[in-house]
């Protein structure tokens, strides 16, 4: 999704929740400023749906919660709230909140040309302060390529680049899958980002 700044006074989380319930669009709250989330491409939507469905099916017999782009994440120890494209939390503390989760072990952002720098930079810097986060998955919507930021036991982040023929390994939820599984039948032409019919 693409974040565009809105011209509003600084909001508290309570004001943000109340105000956003009355809006037709989703908005992130960063340092008291509201950012509207605009729609993504068809590829963006299809990739997000496929990943969310795969995670939910994989975890259906667990106590984990799979989130789509409608579930906010509260950045740990801040009043910032973001909307990732997909997330998974297995933390019991997230079962006590109804408007957001705080402790995901997995966060997914499907990249758009206009948001890639933000997703790789500022957004990742916010997410990585979360002690529960193990995997941050960045999925290209214009080429068959995925970058995984995986937190090692030492606390260091390892970056793994996956391309055609590779198998993605998400240790956070004990899931492996071939990269082609989520890119099937997509037209990855960056000029149009259109899709082929299934």
From TrEMBL:
InterPro entries: Nuclease_put_TT1808 (IPR012296), Restrct_endonuc-II-like (IPR011335), Uma2 (IPR008538)
Domain called Putative restriction endonuclease: residue spans: 13-173
PANTHER family on file: GLR1098 PROTEIN, RESTRICTION ENDONUCLEASE DOMAIN-CONTAINING PROTEIN-RELATED
Name this protein carries in UniProt: Putative restriction endonuclease domain-containing protein
Species whose genome carries this gene: Coleofasciculus chthonoplastes PCC 7420
């Amino acid at each position: 999704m693409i974040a565009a700044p809105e011209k509003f006074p600084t909001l508290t989380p309570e004001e943000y929740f109340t105000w956003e319930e009355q809006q037709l669009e989703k908005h992130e709250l960063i340092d008291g400023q509201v950012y509207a989330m605009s729609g993504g491409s068809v590829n963006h939507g299809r990739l997000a749906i496929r990943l969310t469905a795969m995670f939910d099916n994989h975890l259906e017999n667990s106590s984990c919660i799979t989130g789509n782009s409608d579930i906010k994440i509260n950045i740990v120890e801040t009043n910032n709230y973001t909307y990732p494209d997909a997330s998974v939390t297995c933390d019991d503390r997230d079962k006590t909140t109804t408007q957001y989760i705080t402790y995901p072990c997995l966060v997914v952002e499907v990249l758009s040309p206009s948001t890639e720098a933000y997703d790789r930079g500022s957004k990742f810097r916010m997410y990585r302060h979360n002690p529960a986060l193990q995997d941050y998955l960045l999925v290209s919507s214009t080429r068959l390529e995925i970058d995984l930021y995986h937190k090692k036991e030492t606390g260091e982040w390892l970056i793994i680049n996956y391309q055609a023929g590779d198998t993605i390994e998400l240790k956070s939820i004990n899931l492996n899958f071939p990269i082609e599984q989520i890119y099937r039948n997509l037209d990855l032409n960056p000029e149009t980002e259109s899709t082929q019919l299934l």
